[in-house]
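Lecture 7 notes. Example A: sequence first, then its structure tokens.
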Amino acid sequence: MSLMTVDQVAEFLGVKDVRVLRLEREHLLNAAEKDGGGNPLFNQEDVKKYKEIAERLGGI
């Protein structure tokens, strides 16, 4: 399992960091775990699946 930081997810999805944090807070994109600083880390496969679903529904 490859984990992605908030910055990496934001770049992959083409959105700002605050948007990724909001998606996580609203449980639309679930963090796999937290790093030492309490920042969420996301499973790369979950992020890919989220992007596919979001694109099918009309965008992120």
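Example B, a different protein, same format:
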Amino acid sequence: MKTTTTLFFAGALCLGVLATACGPTTPRTTLSNLPQSSVSVIDPSWEKANEIVMSSLNEGGSLAALSIPVLRAPSLESSWGKPSVETSPQGFYRLTYEDPNRPFERLLIYGSPKPFPRPIAPPKILSEEMVNGGLGTVEKTQRWQSTTVLGQTVPWYIESTGGGADGEYFSTVGIRLTGPDDRVGYYRLVIETITGQAPARFSKVGW
């Protein structure tokens, strides 16, 4: 069985599972930088697209210079403050919103000028559980779940069950959206949480 590597994020998308780490400015762990033994590959094309996005992102840059409309989370911006911004010469971006009062509560928005490949199936979930009196790794299948993003029904899945220095991670598949100016972009959303905020936080995004 193949497995995946990165940090979303942390997370980007699709074009976008994480290849660098996720945090306020340096995002922490997400799907693609988990240890190779920790998660099953969904689809090589999905993984590759995410890695391309993640590897090209750098802190800062101009969101106004992007060819795609910038998807944001206005309500989180009002309560949590401005997100950290990363962009790339290829036209990708990532916004990272973090709760200043609670660790492990974040929303990451990945934007791309190109469509994300459609994952074939959600990955299997690996978690540490007691097995026959000892701690062992248990592999479980999962089904697609769904949320509503700007009127669209969007599938999402569990990226990671978290633990230690990270919360749980939840990711949508790629989303095609048309902005108020009729420009089209492609997006992936990632939630980190320890308070059960998936899928409600996915619906926080808007223009």
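Note on Example B: The first helix runs from residue 44 to 56. The longest strand covers residues 184-193.
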